[in-house]
Amino acid sequence: MTTLSSDSSPRTGLPLWAVIAAAGLIVGTTAGLRQVVGLYLPPVSESLGVGVEPFSTSMAVANLLWGVGGVVAGAIADRYGAGRVTLLGLVLIIIGYYMLYLAQTGPDLMWSGISLGFGVGACGISVMVGVVGRAAPPTRRTAAIAALGMANGIGNFLAFPYTHLLMETMGWRASILAVIATLALMLPCVWLVSGKTQPMVGAKSQAFGEAFREAFRLPSYWLLTIGYSVCGFHVAFYSVHLPAFVASQGLPSSVAVWALTAVGIANIIGTYIAGQSSRYIEKRLALTIIYLARCFVFLGLLYLPPNGPTIIVLSTILGFFWLATIPLTSSLVATFFGTAWLSMLFGFVLLSHQTGSFVGVWLAGILYDITQSYDTMWWISIGLSLTAAAVHWPIRERPVPRLATGP
Predict the structure, then answer these.
(1) Tell me, what DSSP letter sits at residue 252?
(2) Which CATH code of 1.25.40.10, 3.60.20.20, 3.30.70.20, 1.20.1250.20 fits the domain covering 16-196+207-396?
(3) 195-198: which pairs have CB atoms within 8 A and are 24 or more residues apart?
(4) Are 294 and 381 in contact (CB under 8 A)?
(5) What is d(CA 325, CA 194) in angstroms, rounded to the nearest whole number?
(6) What are the residue boundaries of the structural domains of the chain, listed by start?
(7) What angle do CA 61, 67, 72 make, to 5 degrees?
């Protein structure tokens, strides 16, 4: 059997802040530059003359493969360490962007999406959650993981105006080369998150298959997994299609840039609050509140005047509940099962998130091409918010019996 540590840092001797900083830089940069792909939807679709659907579908596939790659990469990182997996992920993201730079047809966009999806899965949040979760003591784990969500928000805050400026000054194709150069700057961070996990003495060991079987027998894990798919639906649909929604209202593209930048700024605050909230209320209750709150944003987009200030304000509100789900959801996984297989088991939950992302991005493209409106998607988002709130409510926030018999 494989015995893995629940409290070993990636590299012995590194302070926790260094591990969090390196993991946060990787997450913030890769997630931020992954999210800005939506800015390329209007110019790429127009330049290639292929319509919205091919680009939308390629990004939907990317989101789905992000989830699949996260499970596989998480298992490898849990067993052998995160270094090589993270390096592979960064290289694949760079390749995906270069394919977008060279794209001439719809299938070219699909290959770009495939490479981007696997790349983000290999060096994204699920792998880094395991790195930070093992480095942090249990009493600081939720707050430490919340730092990754905050880093993601900072990445979004910087990535959207940064990429928009590059596109305005260099054109959309040339701007991609600058994005690739930015990603290459993250390569030195790989060393700080590398290193094998250390054996833990005293606790009952688990092999790969045993960890999955234990997780799949726990109803609360399934409820958490199902609910997280709604988060993926919301986040991917909003980030990819907001530029197109803004354009459909006859507004300048800068409105979408500032709105998504506002999401990133508010997300920093909201994720920090979520990381601290576990001291006062149960994580499943905080998640229920987050999903209920999102309903009001989508209702606002349906019924309030669709002008620039309205969209930016509503986006700011949504930002407070954007990635606040990350520390709460991943910490619940750690509460259930410990951190030995945290990257893999959270990776499976993230697969549900990315399945929701796939559906959200793909369905929005299909429905918009049919109806020339996003109204149906806002109503679907409201219904899913209510469903997610109901699903999280009965979760039982306690460890499995195996951990109760540990040291």
Answers:
(1) -
(2) 1.20.1250.20
(3) 195/9, 195/10, 195/11, 195/12, 195/81, 195/83, 196/80, 196/81, 197/4, 197/5, 197/8, 197/78, 197/79, 197/81, 197/134, 197/340, 198/5, 198/8, 198/12
(4) yes
(5) 26
(6) 16-196+207-396
(7) 120
Locus of tokens 């299938």: 107
- Residues of the chain with pLDDT below 50 are 1-8, 199-202, 407
pLDDT of residue 286: 94
State the residue for tokens 């790349």: 119
Helix 83-102 and helix 52-80: axis angle, to 10°? 170
Taking the CA atoms of 331, 332, 336 and 342 in sequence, report the sign of the dihedral they define: negative
* Cα torsion angle, 58, 42, 185, 195, sign: negative
Please tell me the total number of residues recorded for the chain in this structure.
407
Collapsing DSSP to helix, strand or coil, 397 comes out as coil
Alpha-carbon distance of 162 to 398, in angstroms, equals 43
pLDDT, residue 119, reads: 92
> How far from 23 is each of 125, 128, 208, 220, CA to CA, in Å?
9, 6, 24, 28
201 phi, psi to nearest 5 deg: -90, 135
pLDDT per residue as tens digits for the range 180-199: 999 999 998 888 888 665 54
H/E stretch holding 38 reads: none
Q: Which position has the token pair 């070219």?
A: 108
Name the nearest CA neighbour of 97 among 109, 106, 85, 83: 109
